[in-house]
């Protein structure tokens, strides 16, 4: 599709701190999206993508930018290169190290039992350092380490249980398949809606079809990486309660936002029943999908102070990144989806989002990232009611174009991976 070009000064104006994309302190919450799923989306991103080469100040060739992560949902961010490649992550090549392995029994209240394993310099020893960049994602990483170790215990107690490397590989397989099942049946269904997910699983992918180009292995489309999958930036709430008796904490504050450091307080221990749906409905909700970002994301405190203000804005960086990779506008992607037979995308919907773009003084077309956010706000997550009628929940998730792009890519990555449950055993549960 033809790439969109917009004046970079316009993009800087749209995404600047204090501008039209800055949220106020009372950002609206969704009605049924757990806040923890937004961070799980970040966890998935770290599992499938890592770009350490592209530039915001030059045109990037997607073919020339290597994805440092494997583009499959294989938890290499947890397992690294395995016991042989990364033995320092493991205990006797079987279980994954956690902070519990360093606890001093003579020190009451040793916080290491609730933390990631760390070197003497306090660097986390994990498969992907980005999973220590904030307190919630580091606690999620710890949860996966503990889950693997628990599965090792369960499998090891079975009759005729395997041992050594065979037990490790079986535990890794079971953990990874559970993770993949959660990605499809919890994350995608909540963010993209049941109708989209069911349509893709029943009728196949319509826009992410590497097989049609003779490509039979997973890869990450640049429209996904630089635009559509960055929807989570708008869903991060500014305040979050992570313990039942705790006070709401600033997500980007000292307690939760400062990453790459050891646990320093029991108040930083995440009670996951508050961030994920446990069945009783009493959980913290994510922010709505809209065209607003928290103020701190528009003036990132960890960026180099000598950078110009616009380069410290995550919104501006997202917009410039999409333009640097020559990606098409949201309208072009919507039209292409219609031509490919996506029944949920209509010209009326595309025009609705286009009108929202005019409020941002956008001439003719909308950057794909902004389009996905505006579509989520103005149209919302689609489903079908008991009478077979399409329903839409504005702000609750991704709209038709964003939902299909995100869901098709993630499901496609699984279907193209012969080790995944969709690529090897579609009857697995």
Overview of this protein structure:
- The protein has 429 residues and is mainly alpha-helical.
- The chain is built from 15 helices and eight strands.
- It has helices at residues 8-15, 35-48, 76-79, 82-85, 135-156, 164-192, 194-203, 222-226, 272-275, 314-324, 330-339, 347-358, 368-378, 400-415, 421-424, and strands at 29-34, 90-91, 95-96, 239-240, 249-250, 285-287, 381-384, 390-393.
- It has a two-stranded antiparallel sheet with strand order 1-6.
- Helix 5 (135-156) crosses helix 6 and helix 12 packs across helix 13.
- It is globular.
- The mean pLDDT is 94.
| Alpha carbon gyration radius | 22 Å
What is the N-to-C succession of helices and strands? HEHHHEEHHHHEEHEHHHHEEHH
Number of strands: 8
Percent of residues in helices comes to: 25-40%
End-to-end distance, in Å? Answer: 39 Å
Biggest pleated-sheet summary: 2 strands, antiparallel
Structural class: mainly alpha
Low-confidence stretches: none
Shape: globular
Provide mean pLDDT, rounded.
94
Determine the strand fraction and express it as a percent band.
Answer: 5-15%
If strands are numbered along the chain, what order do they take across the biggest sheet?
Answer: 1-6
How many helices? The count is 15
